[in-house]
């Protein structure tokens, strides 16, 4: 006891007895609880900050997408400087977001304890849990970015702008996370925000792909049901790889909304 307390504050052993008498707890335990509260508050701030940063980045991506889509009259040949600039701007954020997700995973697993050093076990557990989201981010950085910057031959800025619009739902998802952290997940605001997140996710992450095929069909005078056969195979495969995780995540959102609806009915 005295060794632990003395190493922390250099206090005499009699002070431990005095604190135990006054507080009803051993000083070491008080110190550990205070440290746990500090770490819990710190990680909550980190989580909230990264969530807000995600919302800001998504809002900027949406604004860039609206600007590009509204500026390109010809969906294939018209170009806009914002496309390449925002891709370069957004790539570092994707790598940061992977790290932020890892920190959040460690905090969730370790609770309010002082976090341990990075370990292969923690990284492996994180990758097993969030492998699809991590893969999505890495594909955007190491495949989507080079294709956009070097292999498009200046074509298709309109469609890159459309892909920026997929971020429209992210601010509402981030708001939902913050409301949960504030213990406001039983409020009407949380339910309304969840409904908006569902609608924007379905519109801008799933319906967006048929819309892009339809716009290309208009440009090439090809019926919608024939557009896929008119495009190169790698274009269709790329769109399929982008669409597949969106469908999976939308299914998760639907299940979460269903659980919330059942909980609301029980409370009523």
Task: Provide a descriptive summary of the structure in words.
The chain is an all-alpha fold. It is 81% helix and 0% strand. It is built from 12 helices and no strands. Helix 3 (27-71) packs antiparallel against helix 7 (157-164). Mean pLDDT is 84; it is low at 1-16.
Sheet with the most strands, sense and barrel status: none
**N-to-C order of helices and strands:** HHHHHHHHHHHH
Structural class: mainly alpha
Please indicate the percent range of residues in DSSP E strands (runs of 2 or more).
under 5%
Rg over C-alpha atoms, rounded to the nearest angstrom: 25 Å
Give me the count of strands. 0
Average residue-wise pLDDT? 84
Count of runs of 4 or more consecutive helical residues: 12
Query: Which regions have little confidence, pLDDT < 50, spanning 5+ residues?
Result: 1-16
What would the principal axes of the Cα set say about the shape?
globular
Keywords: Membrane, Transmembrane, Transmembrane helix
Subcellular location: Membrane
Membrane topology: Multi-pass membrane protein
Domain TLC: 43-262
Write the layout of secondary structure elements.
Elements: H1 2-9, H2 13-23, H3 27-71, H4 81-110, H5 120-129, H6 131-151, H7 157-164, H8 170-181, H9 188-205, H10 208-220, H11 224-230, H12 233-267
Helix pairs in contact: 3-4, 3-7, 3-8, 4-6, 8-9, 9-12, 10-11
Subcellular location: Membrane
GO biological process, one term: lipid homeostasis
InterPro entries: TLC-dom, TLCD
């Amino acid at each position: 006891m005295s060794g632990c307390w003395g190493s922390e504050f250099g206090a005499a052993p009699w002070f431990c007895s005095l604190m135990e008498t006054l507080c009803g707890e051993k000083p070491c335990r008080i110190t550990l609880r205070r440290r746990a509260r500090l770490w819990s508050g710190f990680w909550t701030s980190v989580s909230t900050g990264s969530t807000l940063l995600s919302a800001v980045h998504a809002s900027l991506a949406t604004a860039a997408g609206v600007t590009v889509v509204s500026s390109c009259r010809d969906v294939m040949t018209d170009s806009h400087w914002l496309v390449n600039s925002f891709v370069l701007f957004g790539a570092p954020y994707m790598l940061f977001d992977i790290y932020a997700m890892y920190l959040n995973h460690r905090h969730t697993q370790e609770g309010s304890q002082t976090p341990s050093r990075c370990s292969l076990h923690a990284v492996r557990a994180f990758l097993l849990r969030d492998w699809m989201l991590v893969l999505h981010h890495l594909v955007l950085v190491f495949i989507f970015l080079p294709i956009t910057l070097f292999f498009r031959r200046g074509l298709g800025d309109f469609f890159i702008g459309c892909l920026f619009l997929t971020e429209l739902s992210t601010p509402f998802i981030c708001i939902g996370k913050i409301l949960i952290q504030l213990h406001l997940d039983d409020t009407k605001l949380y339910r309304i925000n969840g409904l908006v997140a569902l609608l924007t996710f379905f519109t801008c992450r799933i319906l967006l792909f048929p819309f892009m095929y339809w716009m290309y069909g208009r440009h090439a005078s090809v019926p919608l049901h024939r557009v896929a056969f008119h495009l190169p195979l790698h274009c269709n495969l790329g769109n399929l790889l982008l669409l597949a995780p969106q469908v999976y995540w939308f299914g998760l959102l639907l299940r979460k909304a269903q659980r919330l609806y059942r909980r609301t009915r029980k409370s009523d």
